[in-house]
Prior knowledge:
The complex is a heterodimer of chains A (231) and B (283). In chain A, 32% of the residues lie in helices and 26% in strands. Chain A has 231 residues and is α/β, with parallel strands linked by helices. In chain A, the strands form two sheets. In chain A, strands 6-7-8-3-9-10 form a six-stranded mixed β-sheet, sandwiched between helices. In chain A, strand 4 (56-61) and strand 5 (64-65) form a beta hairpin. In chain A, helix 3 (96-105) crosses helix 4 (111-124), helix 4 (111-124) packs across helix 5 (140-152) and helix 5 runs parallel beside helix 6. With 283 residues, chain B is an alpha+beta fold. Chain B has helices at residues 2-14, 16-51, 66-78, 90-100, 128-139, 151-193, 195-203, 208-244, 253-281, and strands at 55-60, 82-88, 116-121, 144-149.
Amino acid sequence: MIRFANVVKEYQRTGVALNDVSFFINKGEFVFLTGPSGAGKSSILKLIYMQELPTRGDVWVSGTKARGVKRKEIAMLRRKLGVVFQDFRLLEDRTVEANIAFALEVIDVPQDKIRSKVARLLGQVGLSSKATNFPSELSGGEQQRVAIARALANDPFVLVADEPTGNLDERATRGVFQLLRDINAAGTAVVMATHNLELVKRAEFRVLEINRGQVVFDSADEKKRKPELTP
Amino acid sequence: MRLAAREAMVGFQRAPMLSVLSITTIAFSLFAFGLFSLVALNLRTALQQVESRVEIRAFIGNEAAVEDVAEAMKVVGTYPEVSRVEYISAEQALERARTELAEFRDVFEAGVLPASIDVRLAEGHRDPTTVEAVAARIQALDVVEDARFGAEWVQKLYKIRNLATAAGVILGLAFATVAVIIIGATIRMAVMARAREISIMRLVGATDGFIRRPFLMEGFVKGVLGGILALVLTWIASIVISRYFIQTEFFDAKIALLGVLGGAVMGVVGSAVSVGRQIRKVT
């Protein structure tokens, strides 16, 4: 479903971010990406939703190949996956329901379908009572739930989350993480980059540890461990 | 489409000063273009009036037989370029000379001026090349001694008109370019102001075409508004000129509509040129 084959990613300004990264993520899997800041976690996520393309090697995401991909194909791929960020990225001048509806409007979903879909998504993330509130009126945890609802609007096969709990207190973190688990239990794969090792330890999900642009540990493949590189 | 229209409206509300600036520059570009066109239009009307007097005068030899002259007139009358053929007898020529040049009326004596055939050309056949060609054909007729036409005069008229047209086109294009550049710059600012929205649109799978739509619509609306404003300004100018300087003619509805449409094209082209490049900068 997601496959990285000897991926090298170099940025013009900052140099090599990923160096010969290969892994495979199965349908419906929950995968943690861990590692220190600047290790290359975000680069991996960006390569998944194809905001970045590999310098060498190749990435396949649900049948879309990164080498020679067209802009239109990237747009179509993104309709099949959801992305959430640490900073939520909501539109501050729109209500909660308008923020979620926005994701459906921009891919030309008919209005009547949007209304019922938004109501269902709000129910799923537990925010039905906040539909007409603006993001600034919500707590951090609630804002992230809105972002998750928006990411789920297209019924994605995978949810890509870049430090989704990074800005949240412990209680909100637990709530958002439970929501992600529920989403995963319903069949959607989740790839989550996080610093929160407590969360990683408590859950028994696959862990990909990244350091200096390389996969230094893959819990699905114990041989990958290179003890000298893990902190 | 509904979303695009709403987004375009949001664009207006978000940057009202910028929107007014865009509309005003389009309006002023079109206004300048409109003023020039007004001059060109009135010049053209004047030229048409002068042109309608363009004629060829074929002088008849004294010994020519009446039947031959009549035959020649018939032949000339069949030329497709010719609208009217008129016989001016020697007496009529004398009479005309005496009235037109009254101070010399005693100089003209009977028999000094020859009879002639005056040929008037049809509209669309009054350009120098045609006039010359027709004159040459008339000259070749047996009864005609000499065919004259205001060659230089006609050519000069045409030169002025061509110059006016060329100046109009060049000036118009220059102004249109300025308008397109300004719209492009405002689009750049508008895209920056909406970078967050655009990046979210991208994230959820909106195509470039979709992201472009509201900007093009905004450009279109601004262009139409600018065009209407320019039309009003030009109309006021024409009224002022008519009242205080010379009577001028205003554009007919078709041309006016074309002007507004020109504004719309400027708005859309200006947006289109810029928006593709700008939205690619937003990731």
